[in-house]
């Protein structure tokens, strides 16, 4: 197949906007209704509902929903040394990068005798969802489990859909356990989100749910996040995407395989190349055709490439401006001067600099988190970090001298807003200090 | 009036749960429908719709929606020196505390030759909403404008409802301008949120909206946040609340005026006292009755006190456990050893330590932000800080040596997940390096 190719300078403003439009995601009212019914059922019938839904939707009759210590040992033994070592090495890098994100407490004496602080506290109970649909995703388990554990969240629950034999994927179990999770449940889909958001006899209630998932999981997260009695969610979901900026020096095979990597995530993925080299654009197009023969999941890839684009731009600066406007989840800058371009990059979930930093590194093991804002959300949401597992609590304390100075300011502002009790709370204290 | 009084140890588990329940907030489908229609109208007709809605809902016919430079000067001149100085002093404290929150970039070499970074970028365009219903709230303008400006958000738009004479409240205008806002619009309610989330000919489109508001504003923020083409929101809203923990040494007048301060925010406010002293509880009850005579807004206060409670608890440790469970927006710890209790406090928006730190200080001028998670959201949301005006972007870069080590790990994990293009993107690079 040949990819859609464009020359930016020949396009009108409207054509440019249409080209950089994401594939529409239809809000599916049927899915929302199905999910609402599942959540209602789990809230009402608890574990019984979860078991019934798992039998119907996953085709597995389970007695025990929780993964046992024996099953954790068995999962470890089921993996090869190579796989185990890769998981352990990835976790170590993710730990190093996320540990560096733990915020130091802030303490400022804003005026003499008035001390203000901001102190992080772990969210007490968090729920992690790891999908296992077309492929099990141990990497998602690592990306969620590491920050939850480092943040010190007391209760850390993981749910993932069971396989037909009633077990969880061993790579997911091993990765989660190695990253600090001991409470794992064989529950998938909207029923997993409901069980974690509201709790059942066996699944602890959590106050925030994290992780990727299919349309049902996404709808369930939206549903519970809109309910004060439910659970907050990490970020809104959307199809995954990559934007590659490459110059004439880029290797076409590198660029092509980066685009194909993103495309294999799913039929709704979007991949975009911006290059100032017409020659590279053609070479990348040919390389994609050549590599496509070698890959499984080629149907998914072809579908994704259908709404993707190879675009020739006048300059690399233009490419950056277009990218900032598009706000890609993943941005690969495969140019000779990649590092020097970084200060110009505004909106992107995660940036991959240079020719030897394919998206695969960030997806698995460089240390950055692969849970990232997609679908343009890189304009207003950050990728996952340890901060989303923490609460920032502020503290203030005034000394008698501090209060004597700041009290009258507060009382003046309270009167300006017509809030007389606020002023009175200051005045009774000033009066007692004899001022 | 006499407040509802309880003894914790005489209550059953169910009674305790009911007592610490927040007043129900009915989700109002009529408001949601009205708001959806307003948003649709603004998206379709832009400024014309805003003008028409302002005429209908605020009773003001406006030609120009934007506040002019002359109006900003006039607002400053309309205020007394005392008021101006109080606003300026408060802004200086808020700036000091929020400036200290600007995160340093993080750079970690997770393994030799693999560099990972997390760099903050300002959200390019933010919208700030300042209500002016029962009372104009210049303090809200300060709390939103200071972090937006310090974060470096390029476009900072403020909307507030016009008064009957077609002007904005001068204290709001002066506070916003002094804190770094120059683009102010005379637009209130759902139409303000719609104008900022989608943009009009005169109001710039923003990608995140912040600030408190009435039920229409809250519903509009929820509506635009659920649309990828709309704008994210700061946090879910709920009625304001305070929980005071006080021991026998606390001054009853201080505690009473703190409870009254919170109660005057609105009829749906909730105020709770937890004390281990039966004598203090009775003194506070008497003091509230006494002070209530002196206050305006006493109807609002009485309504709020109706669903509030003075509770005698066995010990201060019990009080902290109950508070952690309740997760109050504001927590005042008026005990002799307040500072030493801080490590035990888990879930609270903002904490006020000791006898001389009334909530008024944090509401106006200590330096902390008064936009805080309420209604139990202190379990899963942080109060406003500079971080919510920033995006955290991650970056990674591998050197040839780094790639030689980490590449095979990524390829192993990609194969484990059945993602062959991810592995290929590594393999073509390893092959070219001759490995």
Walk me through this protein's architecture.
Two copies of one chain form a homodimer. Chain A is built from 16 helices and 14 strands. By secondary structure, chain A is of the alpha/beta class. Chain A has a six-stranded parallel beta sheet, sandwiched between helices. A five-stranded parallel beta sheet of chain A has the order 6-5-4-7-8, sandwiched between helices. In chain A, strands 2-3-14 form a three-stranded antiparallel beta sheet. The radius of gyration of chain A is 26 Å and the shape is globular. The termini of chain A are far apart. Chains A and B meet through helix 4, strand 2, strand 3, helix 9 and strand 13 of A and helix 4, strand 2, strand 3, helix 9 and strand 13 of B. Strand 14 (390-398) of chain A pairs parallel with strand 13 (350-353) of chain B.
């Amino acid at each position: 197949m040949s990819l859609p190719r464009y020359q930016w300078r020949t396009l009108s403003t409207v054509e440019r906007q249409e080209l950089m439009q994401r594939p529409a995601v239809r809000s599916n009212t049927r899915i929302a209704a199905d999910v609402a019914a599942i959540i209602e059922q789990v809230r009402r019938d608890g574990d019984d509902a979860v078991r019934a839904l798992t039998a119907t939707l996953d085709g597995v009759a389970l007695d025990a929903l929780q993964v046992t210590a024996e099953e954790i040992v068995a999962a470890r033994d089921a993996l090869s040394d190579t796989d185990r070592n890769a998981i352990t090495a990835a976790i170590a890098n993710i730990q190093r990068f996320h540990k560096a994100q733990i915020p130091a407490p802030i303490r400022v004496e804003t005026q003499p005798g008035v001390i203000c602080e901001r102190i992080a506290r772990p969210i007490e109970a968090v729920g992690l969802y790891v999908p296992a649909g077309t492929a099990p995703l141990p990497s998602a388990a690592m990306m969620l489990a590491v920050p939850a554990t480092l943040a010190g969240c007391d209760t850390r629950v993981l749910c993932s859909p069971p396989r037909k034999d009633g077990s969880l994927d061993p790579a997911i179990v091993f990765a989660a356990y190695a990253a600090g999770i001991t409470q794992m449940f064989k529950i998938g889909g909207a029923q997993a989100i409901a069980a974690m958001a509201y709790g059942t006899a066996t699944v602890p209630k959590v106050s925030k749910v994290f992780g990727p998932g299919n349309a049902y999981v996404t709808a369930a997260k939206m549903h519970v996040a809109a309910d004060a009695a439910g659970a907050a969610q990490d970020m809104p979901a959307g199809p995954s995407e990559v934007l590659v900026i490459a110059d004439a020096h880029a290797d076409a095979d590198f660029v092509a395989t980066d685009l194909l990597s993103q495309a294999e995530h799913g039929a709704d993925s979007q991949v975009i190349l911006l290059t100032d080299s017409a020659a590279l654009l053609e070479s990348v197009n040919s390389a994609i055709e050549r590599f496509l023969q070698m890959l499984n999941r080629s149907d998914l890839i072809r579908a994704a490439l259908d709404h993707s684009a190879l675009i020739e731009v006048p300059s690399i600066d233009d490419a950056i401006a277009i990218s900032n406007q598009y706000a890609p989840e993943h941005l690969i800058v495969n140019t000779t001067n990649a590092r020097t371009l970084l200060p110009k990059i505004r909106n992107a979930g995660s940036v991959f600099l240079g020719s030897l930093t394919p998206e695969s590194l960030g997806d698995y093991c460089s240390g950055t988190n692969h849970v990232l804002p997609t679908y343009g959300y890189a304009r207003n949401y950050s990728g996952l970090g340890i901060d989303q597992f923490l609460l920032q609590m502020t503290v203030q304390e005034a000394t008698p001298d501090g209060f004597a100075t700041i009290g009258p300011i507060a009382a003046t502002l309270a009167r300006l807003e017509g809030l007389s009790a606020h002023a009175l709370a200051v005045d009774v204290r000033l009066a007692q200090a004899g001022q």
